[in-house]
Amino acid sequence: MNSLKRLVRAPSNIALIKYMGKTDAGANLPENSSLSMTLDALSTWVAFERTPSAKGSSGGSSQILLLPELPAGIAGIASGVLRLPHLSAAGRAKVIRHVERVKTAASEILPAFGLRAHTEFDLVLRSANTFPEASGIASSASSFAAITLATALACAADTEAFERAWSTQVELKRAFARVSRQGSGSSCRSFEGPWVLWEGEGAHAVEATLPELSHFVILISEETKTVSSSEAHLRVKTSPLWSGRPERVERRLEKLRAALSQGDLATIARLSWTEAWEMHSLFHTSEEPFSYWKAGTIDALHWFAPMILTQPIPPIVTLDAGPNIHVIVPRTEADAWRANLHGRFGVSALLEDRPGSGAQVVSS
Ligand code: DP6
Asked: Can you give the pTM of this predicted structure?
């Protein structure tokens, strides 16, 4: 097997209907379906180098090295500032286990798409994000999606054939999205775009009739969160508000899907607002209550509240498991919103993005 270097990237996604609570923590199976918008520039880049296994064909597991380094060659390609992920020993072990999981899955998935698989190789993965980690921008979504794609590509004996299949056969993406879900649930929504529904084991794109959109993140805090989202998934079930949540969310999701296909931005905005408040209320009312909100989060929520409730077409405003606020608006209004948000929250507090199409191979 020849040595191979490639670069991939996967965007984060922002859920309007949230994945919160699992029926199976080992497999990351959700209590309810969720629906998100795939982002574009806010992403994880992974450069990988595959070399023949130092163990040769004698068996045993091959080496995987994970480096929080700037992948070579991307500075000129990636827009915005690149940040290196801070990986704890446990976080690193989780990613390495995931790489092994993808290799095992690839040996079954690739042949099903007419692609030959190799899994005896050593792999060096270098990754960087275009956004601050652990602050409510789903870094685990983009990083697990990018690591999944990088490993899947490394397992392909003919990488050009893999790249062709990746861009033409959506079921190949969906098969690896299911594997990615086992590493981190929300990552399964980062393989397609712009609107993705995750039900049960897998995710797929859904139709929407909407104008071009812009996405802003108001960065309230870049501090690392003290309660991981995996922990939050457990604690929410101890809230008295948990009762009826899965059924309630499925009904909200049906309304949201109808609003997406009708291009009904006002309904999308109001449902998203309610859903974000409900998820954070679960955090605030669990047996060991906790909050991701900072003073600035509450201030911003107060600022948005009258708009959401009274404007004919309000902005779509939501939060993930973090203090930062996501705002989605028609692109025709982006200039006015940028000025508005700069004026209210400061120039350095804003990240900007747009809907995207999911994990992709960047170079060949
Ligand atoms: C609040 O996907 O990070 O962002 O499966 O344990 O890795 P694990 O959880 P994760 O949960 C993210 C939850 C959320 C809401 C969402 O994205 O739907």
From this structure: 0.94
